[in-house]
Amino acid sequence: MNTVANIDFEVEVAVPVIIVGGGACGLVAALTLADAGIDSLVLERDALPSGSTALSSGMIPACATHLQRTAGVKDSVEMLIHDIQAKAKGQADPAVVRAVAEVSGPTVEWLITDHGIELTLVDGFLYPGFSALRMHAPLSRQGADLMSGLLRAAEAARIDIMTNALVTDLVALNDGRVIGVTVQRPDGSTEKIGCQAVILACNGYGGNPDMVREHIPEMAAAEYFGHPGNQGDAVQWGTSLGAAVKHMGAYQGHSSVATPHGILITWALMMEGGIQINCFGERFSNEHRGYSEQAVDVLSQPDQVAWLVIDDRLLTLGREFEEFKLAEAAGAVRHGSSVEDLSRKTGIPGAP
């Protein structure tokens, strides 16, 4: 991925705004522009837009929404700011945190009322670090369904999305203004598209092992559970144009992905009383700190594997999530009538 300085960039077509990346971030940006009467072109490297959103539970944190009020949940911008800063140990930029908190509720309301995105308030458990129920998600609790809703909204708004379009170069003037991009198609051919502005919505660098080793060495040996297109393109393009970077060592780990199935298991089970044990049957940390914090501890266990232990009550909760039901159908969940029965079925030593 390159940034090319070129004042003689001859384009085949031009649009006001190019959005690189067709995940949730890119589609929401496109919908925002469409509402403002500004045309955009979304460039997506895959045959079907999905991004890391499709691998997630599709949950959007937001405060002071009508769904919260209907459920009798008391929440506010100040409460969300407090929770974010507590989780981030005070390291988050206060201006950015406030800006995000203030628009979180209106954004969810806008997605629901203006663009028909079906979201519900997730109840039954508090998300790690939150003091109020504020996660909004599709009823299925699947990011793939959130993406489907956003794609329907984009189609209704007549937003142009070009798939199988890998952006290889940003073309900028000497003053740093981006005037276009070069796109590579699956057959190796290239296209040049001009623009007045570009939005980089192509996530982080989790799929780039070299960047992971450089910025978060403690996670270098971790299995990557994200979209393979997250190669750090936006970081590399931005820094080449003079952008500042900060907190490059920040990341979201996840310590509850079924292996080798590659299916996300909701952390709600941990927050409601589940525990994780290693292959020796030992509980090795406090899971309630959160799934990202727990990831480093899981990596330190033999074979980098932990078992999640739940009871029938939590099994019922897990089955409210489509991913959990998929994992169960795939054989990732072992059932036992007793500790001894579970020990036989998992090969983990039972209670002494």
Number of domains: 2
CATH architecture of the largest domain: 3-Layer(bba) Sandwich
Shape: globular
Mind telling me the CATH superfamily name of the largest domain?
Answer: FAD/NAD(P)-binding domain
Mean of residue pLDDT values: 93
- CATH C-level name of the largest domain: Alpha Beta
Instruction: Characterize the biggest β-sheet.
Output: 7 strands, mixed
Number of helices: 12
Structural features, described:
This protein is α/β, with parallel strands linked by helices. The chain folds into 2 domains: 2-199, 3-Layer(bba) Sandwich (FAD/NAD(P)-binding domain), CATH 3.50.50.60; 257-346, Flavocytochrome C3, Chain A, domain 1, CATH 3.90.700.10. 32% of the residues lie in helices and 17% in strands. It contains 12 helices and 14 strands. The chain has a 7-stranded mixed β-sheet with strand order 1-8-9-10-2-3-7, sandwiched between helices. The longest helix has 20 residues, at 94-113. The termini are far apart. Its cofactor is FAD. GO terms for molecular function: oxidoreductase activity. Keywords: FAD, Flavoprotein, Oxidoreductase.
